[in-house]
Structure formats: structure tokens, C-alpha cells
Amino acid sequence: MKITIVAGARPNFMKIAPLYSELEKRGLPQLLLHTGQHYDKNMSKIFFDDLGLPEPDIFLGVGSGSHATQTASIMVKFEEVCLEVQPSIVVVVGDVNSTLACTIVAKKMNIPTAHVEAGLRSGDMEMPEEVNRILTDAVADILLTPSIDGNENLIREGRMEEDIFFVGNIMIDSLKYCLERSSENDIFEKLNIRKGEYGVLTLHRPSNVDNTTSMTSILDALFEIGKEIEIVFPMHPRTRKSMERMGLSNRLSEIPNIRLVEPLGYLEFISIVANSRVVLTDSGGLQEETTFLKIPCITLRDNTERPITVTGGTNKIVGNNTERILDAFNESIKEDYSDKGDLPLWDGGTAVRIAKIIQSYLGG
Ligand code: UD1
Fold it and tell me: Could you give the strand order of the β-sheet that contains 258-261, starting from the edge strand earlier in sequence?
């Protein structure tokens, strides 16, 4: 019996860490596989260290490429691995290209597949992650959802109730574990910021950062926000390259009070988010982390696959229009979110629930 856990890109690592550790505790044999979709130290290795994950047992080293190139190259290499190790089950997480590629391979080899974070839907088929989510959930055997809307989406798409398990949000397991340790770093001195007095910005979606009109509109809003508050911006490598290509790097560095930094590790990042005044982002996971932390979140997208963070959390979906971003900023910093964000099963116990389901599926 060998459980193969797949991770490939930055947002996967905090989703596999608690499960890996829980399966270890139960003495279940497992293989940790990293596809190499993300490979920079700051996008990968640092997360393994911060989250207490061991070196992966298998590293596919696929690197960057177009969607087809990346997905295909993961599939070819993962098939070879499956032929050799004969996993008893493959566990995939999230919605990145590695998630879909490994699911297709496993299913075509009749290996049972479990999807952690199943059922999320943005309804936006122009988003590569939405395609990955729908296709993964169409074939995976065990569908593990973070919120009840995930169950509803899967039922609507024709999946059977007995394959769907509402287990809660596994990212909150990592967040809780790391919050206890995140005070041990000196990120506030390094960035010269004071707790509660700055905003955090992250941007990496192609629809924002690869499009000059969208990016200019966001930069205009940031120019005004920077007059009010310091903005810490750990920049994704894709964003840095895009800004240079579009000739917007100067415009970005002219924003008042902006702190442009390299992508941060998990512990440092969680520290600055947990102590921020507001977060502006186009990330998926950050909408959930801010909700749990009761920090206002302004999402620079037109939709979200995590609507529960709007209805039950601190999230506002505003797109990339300058005026809408500024209005949301002005509202958010005044709002009191103390009664928000306590969502069902976002409690740090998700890995235990998933491990039990996998163990019982495998007859343990
Ligand atoms: C991927 C995921 C996205 C996730 C994001 C988090 C897909 C379709 N997208 O998007 O869902 O939110 O990760 O970061 O799987 N690059 C580096 N070093 C790295 C990784 C990437 O320089 O370690 C640069 C490369 O130029 C690369 C570009 O970033 O071409 C984009 O990387 P890629 O993995 O294709 O997609 P992300 O935008 O990171």
C-alpha cells in the first residue's frame, strides 16, 4: 500500500503539509512527489522548510512552459512513476496544472484518486484553474470539499453523494500550525513596517498582470492607496517579468510608500498578513486566509471560486476598476469584521478527517 501525494506549485505546499504529517503519524506508507512546476527557492524549497516537509521522494523537474507543454510533460513523467511504484492511491490538491495532469494519468491507469479542495467553482471558463477544477472533479474518486458550496456544485455536475466528503479547509490546518511559530521571525524589522499600519498586495493572475489596461488601472488605484498606507508587495516572478515587458516597472516603483520585495516564505508571509490593516490580492488562498484571520480582503478579480469568503468572511470582489478598488479600500479599513470568518470545519482538523477517509477507503 503506497499513498502518493502530489504537489507542484506554491499554493499546493500548505495543502499537502498537514496531510503528510497526519499520514506519517498513522504509520501509513507514502511517497511525496513534486512535479517541479514551481522551482525557484522562494517559490518552493522555502515552503518545504517552513512547513516541516521533508525533501520530496520524487522530483519530476518539469519547470515552466505553456499550459500544454507543462501539463503534457508532467503526464509523461508521472506515468513512468506510476508504472514503477504502483501507488495504491494518488492524492492531488488544489487547481494547478500539476493537479489535473496527475489526475488524468492516475485515472487512466485505474489508480484511485482523491482530490483535496474539490468542488470550488468560479464560473469563469477563461481561468485555467477553472478548467483544471472541473476536469479533475469529473474523474477523481474521492472528492474532499472545503465548504458546503463545493458539495452543491459537485452534485449539480452529476457526481454521486457517496463520493463527496465535506472535510473543511486544509489550509487552515497549516495556517494555525504556522501562526504559532511565525512570531519568531524578524520580517517587520527587515521591511521597516509597523504592525497594523500597512497593506499587503499580491498579484499574479494572467488576466491582471499580462494585460496593460488592467495593470494600469490597478496601478492607478495603488498610487492613491499608497498616499494613505504603506504597501508591501512580494512580487511573483511572472508579475515581475510582465511588468518589465509592458514597461510598467517605473510606474510601479513610483507608487508612494510601496515596498517591493521578493516572494516571501510561508512563515514570513503569514506574519505580515496576520498583522496587516488590509490585503489586496488576486490569489485564491489569500481570500481564505484573510477570512480566517478577520483581515479585510479586496480581491482584484471579477469573480471568486470561494464565495463563502464573501458571504461569511471579509472578502470584497471588485475587479480591476480604479474607482471600485478605491471605494472598497475606503470601506474596508473602516469595517469591523470581528464577528466574521468562523466558518464550518475551518478548524485545523481537516487533515485528520481526510486521513481517516483515505485509510478507510484503502481498507485500513
Ligand atoms: C500557478 C498556478 C496558479 C497559482 C499560481 C501560484 C496553474 C495553471 N497556475 O500560476 O493557479 O495560483 O501558480 O503561484 O497551474 N516562474 C518562475 N519561477 C518559478 C515559477 C514560475 O520564474 O518557480 C515564472 C515563469 O516565468 C513562469 C511563470 O512564472 O512561466 C508562471 O508560472 P506557472 O507555474 O506557469 O504559473 P503561475 O502563474 O505561477
Answer: 258-261, 230-234, 198-202, 278-281, 297-299, 315-317
Amino acid at 258: I
Q: Average pLDDT, stretch 342-349?
A: 98
DSSP string, 87-149: -SEEEEESSSHHHHHHHHHHHHTT--EEEETTT---S-TTSHHHHHHHHHHHH-SEEEESSHH
Reported as type and span, the H/E element at residue 269 is helix 266-274
CA distance 111 to 284: 29
* Range 14-36 average pLDDT: 98
Does the pLDDT of residue 230 top 80, yes or no? yes
Note the pLDDT tens digit of each residue in 112-134. Answer: 999 999 999 999 999 999 999 99
- pLDDT digit string (tens) for 243-284? 999 999 999 999 999 999 999 999 999 999 999 999 999 999
Phi, psi dihedral angles at 224 (to 5 degrees):
-75, -40
Residues with CB under 6 A from ligand 1: 9-11, 37-40, 43, 64, 95-97, 128-129, 204, 236-238, 241
Element holding 164 (H helix, E strand): strand 164-166
Average pLDDT, stretch 49-61? 97
Question: Of all residues in the chain, what percent carry a pLDDT higher than 90?
Answer: 98
Return the best residue to mutate from 6, 37, 124, 127 for the ligand 1 pocket (most ligand atoms within 8 A of CB). Answer: 37
The C-alpha cell of 203 is what? 498579484
In the reported structure, the alpha carbon of residue 134 is separated from the centroid of ligand 1 by a whole-number distance in angstroms of: 20
Hey, whose CA ends up nearest to atom 21 of ligand 1? 38
Residues contacting 167, CB < 8 A, separation 6+: 116, 144, 145, 146, 345, 350, 353, 354, 357
Name the phi and psi angles at 199, rounded to 5.
Answer: -110, 160
Q: Which one-letter amino acid corresponds to residue 247?
A: G
The residue type of 262 is E
Angstrom distance (rounded) from CA 114 to CA 96: 15
